[in-house]
Design a protein that fits this description.
about 210 residues; alpha/beta; Rossmann fold; 2 domains; eight-stranded mixed beta sheet; three-stranded mixed beta sheet; 11 strands; about 25% strand; binds glycinamide ribonucleotide
Length: about 210
């Protein structure tokens, strides 16, 4: 399975996926919309092809997304992984990668879509927070849930400490979901519901697939 990862910054989720060494999954390219994305250096060190499609050089979202898709498609990926890729995507772009583009979001969706999830979770007083991996659909931070991991909100947490705890959970579940794709376990049933087949992960507390079938 050829995988293209899109980043905008640090790229720690990209790094977690690369370092997981997933059998049957090859990260063939890392693409950033920012020339200064820190994660690009790691990818280059690993000998992974990198490219930058700088959104500031395009006149609008449609033009940028078209150029981005051209770059992605040149690598002929079966899976597109958004790893801290901080761009709102056009409907056409999302439709083009229907069922094969995934995202990690730093909250237990559908709670706290959008930005500043950790600050908002603390303000809301939730006791449990976490991360979600989902298929990308046209609406922002939605789409079928593939896995979630929960973490406690502890006394004395600030947005940074909570973000660090959630990020560790992201690094656990994101490679796991990529592995499920590589193993052909993610399927859509006749009613359009996404299912994870043959995975006993539900037994592992606080890291469960979105829906399971034997
Ligand atoms: C991660 O926490 C990821 O969940 C979040 O950006 C961070 C990227 O970190 N993504 C979003 O907020 C997307 N809506 P990373 O670059 O170190 O992987």
């Amino acid at each position: 399975m050829r995988v293209v990862i899109l980043i905008s910054g640090r790229g720690s989720n990209m790094q977690a996926i690369v370092e997981a060494g997933i059998a049957g999954a090859e990260v063939v390219a890392v693409i950033s919309n920012r020339p200064d994305a820190e994660g690009l250096a790691f990818a280059r060190e690993r000998g992974i092809e990198t490219c930058v499609v700088d959104h500031t050089r395009f006149d609008g979202r449609e033009a940028f997304d078209r150029a981005l898709a051209t770059h992605i498609d040149a690598f002929a990926p079966q899976l597109i992984v958004l790893a801290g890729f901080m761009r709102v995507l056009t409907d056409g772009f999302v439709a083009h990668y229907h069922g094969r583009m995934i995202n990690v979001h730093p909250s237990l969706l559908p709670a706290f879509q959008g930005l500043h999830t950790h600050r908002r979770a603390l303000e809301a007083g939730v006791r449990i927070h976490g991360a979600t991996v989902h298929l990308v659909s046209p609406e922002l931070d939605s789409g079928p849930i593939l896995a979630q991991a929960a973490v406690p909100v502890l006394p004395g947490d600030d947005p940074a400490s909570l973000a660090a705890r959630v990020l560790a959970a992201e690094h656990r579940i994101y490679p796991q979901v990529v592995r499920w794709f590589a193993e052909g376990r993610i399927r859509t049933d006749s009613e359009g519901r996404v299912r994870v087949h043959g995975e006993a992960a539900a037994e592992r507390a606080l890291c469960v697939p979105g829906a399971i079938e034997a």
